[in-house]
C-alpha cells in the first residue's frame, strides 16, 4: 500500500500567533463524515483515510471527496507593492528566488523581509 501524507494547509506565519483556520469537508458515498483527514493511502481503487482522532476509513476512491477551505485571511497585513532595485527575494515558503522581482509570476513574496505582492 502506498501512503501519501496530505499537506492540508500551506500557510505561513504573519505573526507568532496568527494562522489561517482550515476547514475540511469529507464526503463518503454522499454522506458528510465528521473528522479531519491527516493521511491518505491508496491501494487499487480504494483509499484509506486516517483521521486526526486516529480512526480509519476505507472506501472506493470514486465515492470520496475532500474539500478544503481557509476561513481566516486576516493574517496577512501591511502588504506593499514591489519596486525595482537590488534585494533578497523569497517565496512565502522560504525559497530564495533572486535579487529582483522582475519576471516573477503573480503572488505574494518576501522582499527584504517584508511581504510584497507581485501583480
Write a structural description:
The chain is mainly β. It contains no helices and twelve strands. The strands form three sheets. Strands 8-12-11-9-10 form a five-stranded mixed sheet, with no helix packed on it. It is elongated. The N terminus is likely disordered.
Going by helix content, strand content and strand pairing, the class is mainly beta
Outline type: elongated
Give the helix proportion (percent range). Answer: under 10%
Tell me about the largest β-sheet: 5 strands, mixed
Q: Kindly estimate the percentage of residues that lie in beta strands according to DSSP.
A: over 45%
**What is the alpha-carbon Rg in Å?**
19 Å
Q: Work out the helix count.
A: 0
Tell me the span between the first and last alpha carbons: 43 Å
Biggest sheet strand order reads 8-12-11-9-10
Instruction: Please mark out the parts with pLDDT under 50 across 5 or more consecutive residues, or reply none.
Output: 1-19
Task: Let me know the number of strands.
Answer: 12
Overall pLDDT confidence: 75
Amino acid at each position: 500500500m502506498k501512503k501519501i501524507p496530505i499537506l492540508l494547509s500551506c500557510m505561513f506565519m504573519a505573526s507568532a500567533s496568527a494562522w489561517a483556520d482550515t476547514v475540511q469537508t469529507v464526503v463518503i458515498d454522499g454522506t458528510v463524515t465528521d473528522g479531519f483527514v491527516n493521511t491518505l493511502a491508496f491501494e487499487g481503487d480504494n483509499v484509506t483515510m486516517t483521521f486526526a482522532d486516529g480512526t480509519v476509513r476505507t472506501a472506493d476512491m470514486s465515492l470520496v471527496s475532500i474539500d478544503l477551505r481557509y476561513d481566516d485571511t486576516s493574517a496577512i497585513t501591511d502588504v506593499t507593492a514591489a519596486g525595482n532595485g537590488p534585494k533578497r527575494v523569497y517565496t512565502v515558503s522560504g525559497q530564495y528566488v533572486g535579487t529582483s522581482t522582475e519576471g516573477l509570476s503573480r503572488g505574494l513574496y518576501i522582499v527584504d523581509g517584508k511581504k510584497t505582492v507581485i501583480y
